[in-house]
């Protein structure tokens, strides 16, 4: 490539860390890329994601910069992308996926089951709130926002004001790993009984549909077929259920290359954690394309729309 690849990214520490790691994986010569920091509405506001209109608030400013030619590629946390296609934009690469699990960070090195009755646990996710209430209805679940360091500080920083102090927080394991903070994790919450958000731990790299062919080819080399398949299946469940950021939905797709199979497990929770619906399905890889739709239909048939705010319930 004659010109540096201009890569758009949110300006948060986590976004910069994951974008830089991906950019380095391109193997471009020195000066072969430049990062362009872009601030989104979601970064500027302290309101909840549901109030702002969902995780798409982190995406629109990046896509605007892509479409108007300020950048050549943009890097997202795949879970932040709306499921509807964006005209003129393609997901050119889904790099190898990081850990899809959630992680507990608790004072005193405690695990979830070891937290005392009434312990205050922070999260900004309706899914995690419902899962916490389902597993430990005796806990006080506290709604929080802020970057990773801010959230961790409410547990680990002894100078935090008493009224803001928490006993634990639940965060994405991938984000902690990308920031080099794995050591603070006191428990990884296993996907078998704590499914995470659709496409959690995966990145998506978007480019214009008419992107420079040489740049597009370089970006496409970082695509991982297993990561793309798993993320696409999980997001298909999200799309069919019309489950926005306020819906407590967890989905896990596992691609087993050795067996040549793909399995999907999904759970929808009552917002108060009082009930859940869980379904599973698997298929040989060549027939796996329909698993997302199958899971979504099975969830609806099992009564998921009566438990949680799903747009599909209105269909």
From TrEMBL:
InterPro entries linked to this entry: HemC, Porphobilin_deaminase_cofac_BS, Porphobilin_deaminase_N, Porphobilinogen_deaminase_C, Porphobilinogen_deaminase_C_sf
PROSITE patterns attached to this UniProt entry: PORPHOBILINOGEN_DEAM
Example GO BP: heme biosynthetic process
Chain ranges of the Porphobilinogen deaminase N-terminal domain: 5-212
UniProt cross-references to SUPFAM superfamilies, sorted A to Z: Periplasmic binding protein-like II, Porphobilinogen deaminase (hydroxymethylbilane synthase), C-terminal domain
Domain Porphobilinogen deaminase C-terminal as annotated: residue spans: 231-300
Family: Belongs to the HMBS family.
NCBIfam families from the UniProt entry: hemC
Task performed by this protein: Tetrapolymerization of the monopyrrole PBG into the hydroxymethylbilane pre-uroporphyrinogen in several discrete steps.
Name used for this protein in its record: Hydroxymethylbilane synthase
């Amino acid at each position: 490539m004659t010109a540096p690849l201009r890569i758009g990214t949110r300006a948060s520490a986590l976004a910069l860390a994951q974008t830089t790691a991906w950019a380095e994986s391109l193997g471009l010569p020195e000066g072969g890329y430049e990062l362009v920091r872009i601030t989104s509405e979601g970064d500027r506001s302290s309101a909840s994601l549901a109030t702002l209109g969902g995780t798409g608030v982190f995406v629109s400013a990046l896509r605007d910069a892509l479409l108007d030619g300020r950048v050549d590629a943009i890097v997202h946390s795949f879970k932040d992308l709306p499921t509807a296609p964006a005209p003129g934009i393609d997901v050119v690469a889904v790099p190898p996926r990081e850990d899809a699990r959630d992680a507990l960070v608790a004072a005193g090195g405690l695990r979830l089951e070891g937290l005392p009755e009434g312990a205050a646990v922070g999260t900004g996710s309706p899914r995690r709130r419902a899962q916490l209430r389902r597993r430990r209805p005796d806990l006080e679940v506290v709604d929080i926002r802020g970057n990773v360091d801010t959230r961790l500080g409410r547990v680990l920083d002894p100078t935090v004001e008493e009224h803001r102090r928490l006993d634990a927080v639940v965060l994405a394991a991938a984000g902690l790993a990308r920031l080099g903070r794995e050591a603070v994790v006191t428990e990884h919450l296993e996907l078998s009984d704590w499914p995470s958000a659709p496409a959690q731990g995966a990145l998506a790299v978007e480019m214009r549909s008419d992107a420079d062919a040489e740049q597009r080819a370089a970006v496409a080399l970082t695509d991982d077929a297993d990561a793309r398949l798993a993320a696409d299946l999980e997001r298909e469940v999200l799309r069919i259920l019309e489950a926005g950021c306020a819906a407590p939905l967890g989905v896990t797709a596992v691609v087993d290359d050795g067996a040549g199979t793909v399995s999907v497990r999904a759970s929808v929770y009552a917002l108060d954690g009082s009930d859940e619906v869980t379904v599973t399905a698997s298929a040989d890889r060549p027939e796996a394309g329909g698993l997302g739709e199958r899971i979504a239909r099975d969830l609806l048939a099992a009564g998921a729309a009566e438990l949680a705010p799903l747009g599909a319930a209105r269909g």
